[in-house]
Amino acid sequence: MKKTLVSALTTALVVGAASTTFAAANPFADVPADHWAYDAVAQLVQDGVVNGYSADGTFKGDQSMSRYEMAQIVAKAMAKSDAADNNNKALIEKLSAEFSDELANLGVRVANLEAKTDNVKWNGLIRYDWNTTNYEHSDNHRDSQDNKLKLRFEPSITINENWTGHSQIDYNIAVDNTADLDASTPGSVTVEKIWTEGVYGKANVKLGRFGSFSDASHGLVFDTRVTGAEVAYAPTENWKVKATAGRYNTNGELAASAGKKPYGTYWAVEAGYQNGKWDAGIGYHNVTATETFQDEASDDGSFRVVDLGVGYAFDKNVKLTADYAFGPSVNRSTGKFIEAAKNAYSIQLNYKGANAADKGSWGAYVAYRSLAPFAAFEATYDHKNGFAGLRSLKGWEIGADYAWAKNIVSTFKYFNGKDTLLTTDDKVTGVWSRVDFLF
């Protein structure tokens, strides 16, 4: 049955009459019935890396595959490897090594075989940001224009068939705010992330300093770096569970103003479901922020958040998401928290989206959000910060992105709302723009 399934896909993956002629004159021996490659290709088929049948629906029945036919499937999988997960990337690399001679005859360049001594892959970007946020009560708080350049390198390292290493290195320059920078060092270099990632079947493990995201609520609660561990497990194609634990930097501005340490411990568990059109999730987040949030959240600076989210894709272009986070009770004896919201929510409608590889592709969205200092304590959005950098903005946001050329994408966002932390409504407007040059 296994060979039949894979054989059934072979004809679909042979492109053009020239390929068919080549296969008919195949000089290679059949792949043995018990060869591990059948299981590997079956897994790629199951995960959608390679799929489909020939135009007339015919296939080879129970006939064993030739090495040449197997190589054609591997070539197709290699062409889609960028979109595959780490487990399937490892399978593709293993298959490409096994069928390297056949792939060479097909004219396929097997980069990982040509560079056995160089197992590091580099990606990155050059980024320009121009952002500004204007508050009606500028004597209370006001952000200056944010005008920055960034050079980012993202190397990935193959360790073995299960483990890879990753890093994110940023070089930042504040273009029109050089007074805040050391004259002898007109920029800053930071290693934002460094972690290892292991894939074992349906489990994915991260260890080190990595980015973590609250999948359940589409980022309403959490989207920042964690130093620790994260384990995700997908028992079926519809269900996924994830657990995260470690230390992360809390709101640095608030901590600095109060002379407190800007870090805390964090752990979370999440469960999610998706079936193509629908996705839904629930999560629980626990923060012990040591000194940063003491007297505001609880006596020891700890608090807990429960988040829920749901999304519905009307078609391949339009999707609606709705998310809600239940935050902790806030000590409102402190003036700046008198009007603080306890819970947070976001409703967003998305249309398409720019694809860096597709010149002319674009997308747009409209959203209404109400954030809270603790429920949305590390929200993913760009317009979120009110008084002392706390997540307290409420209002409408529209945005769009566009791929001007291959690997060149620009983004624009506009926000109109208020800051909920002050006793009087503080009207807020913001413009956020970015251009990314990807490599």
Helices and strands in order:
Layout: H1 2-13, H2 16-24, H3 36-46, H4 67-79, H5 86-98, H6 100-106, H7 111-114, E1 120-135, E2 146-158, E3 163-174, E4 188-200, E5 203-213, E6 223-233, E7 239-249, H8 252-258, E8 263-274, E9 278-288, E10 302-313, E11 318-326, E12 344-352, E13 362-370, E14 393-405, E15 408-419, E16 426-438
Antiparallel strand pairs: 1-2, 1-16, 2-3, 3-4, 4-5, 5-6, 6-7, 7-8, 8-9, 9-10, 10-11, 11-12, 12-13, 13-14, 14-15, 15-16
Features:
439 residues; alpha+beta; Porin; 8 helices; 16 strands; globular; disordered N terminus
Description:
The chain has 439 residues and is of the alpha+beta class. It folds into 2 domains: 2-114, no CATH class; 120-438, Porin (Beta Barrel). Helix content is 17%, strand content 43%. It has helices spanning 2-13, 16-24, 36-46, 67-79, 86-98, 100-106, 111-114, 252-258; strands spanning 120-135, 146-158, 163-174, 188-200, 203-213, 223-233, 239-249, 263-274, 278-288, 302-313, 318-326, 344-352, 362-370, 393-405, 408-419, 426-438. It has a 16-stranded antiparallel β-barrel. The model is unreliable at 1-28, 52-62, 112-117, 178-185 and 252-258 (pLDDT under 50).
Relative helix content: 10-25%
The CATH superfamily of the largest domain turns out to be Porin
SSE-based structural type: alpha+beta
Task: Name the CATH architecture of the largest domain.
Answer: Beta Barrel
What multimeric state do the chains show?
A: single chain
What is the number of strand segments? Answer: 16
Largest sheet features = 16 strands, antiparallel, barrel
The CATH topology annotation of the largest domain reads as: Porin
Proportion in β-strands: 35-45%
* Broad CATH class of the largest domain: Mainly Beta
Order of helices and strands: HHHHHHHEEEEEEEHEEEEEEEEE
Anisotropy-based shape: globular
Tally of alpha and pi helices: 8
User: How many domains is the backbone divided into?
Assistant: 2
**End-to-end gap:** 43 Å
Radius of gyration: 25 Å
Spatial order of the strands forming the largest sheet: 1-2-3-4-5-6-7-8-9-10-11-12-13-14-15-16
Average the pLDDT over all residues and give the rounded result.
78
